Write the structure tokens for this entry.
Amino acid sequence: MNSNFNSRISNQLLLAYTHIDDKRNSPGGIFPTIEIFDADGTVAGVTKGRNYMSAGTDPFTRNNEVVNNIADLTDNFTYFAGKHTLTAGATYEYQKVGNAFMAGSESYYIYNDLNDFINDAPPAYFSYTYSLIPGQPKVFSANLQLGQLGAYIQDEFNVNSNFKLTYGLRGDVPTYLKQPLANAANGQKRTFFYHPVLVSGGKFLMKKDLFCVAEREYLQVKYHLYS
């Protein structure tokens, strides 16, 4: 909004808002991701020990969302004084940022071969990611609300028809309107045990019933590796 009070004084008020909420969805209900390998190399055209078939939903779609909402308010007051154009203003920006990514939240299974899957044998690998917050199945690993207040003043000096000089001063103060999540690794609140997957003759060879947990304040990922 532009306002002219007289030939020397004007004001400009600007308001802008951007809304981004990018969600990934898949049709149907919750269903796991299943990978079946050709462990023995008996399937023509498939490399021994490699993926033979996949079924189910994409493991990276459920509980995957990006939020980036920005509101900006700016006011500029201008005074025209001959060769000088003086501008003083203030601006405030509010930003809400969120990122939810819970890979494997519909569960994820790997079987050595088709026979294991058909005969309901234990999977070679199992993973499941879930929320630790009661009543909240989806959590945002990044969930911030930021504000930034700025003030400035400048002078546009028309020295002559061939030369114009603009100079000024500005200051900004950022604020966190919502306390960011603590770094779990620094706070000693994260425990993670990992055992590499060893493949011999196309089979997953693991210690029996090895259980691994990656734990944070809000999210837990469980892995089961079977012999």
In short: The chain is about 0% helix and 55% strand.
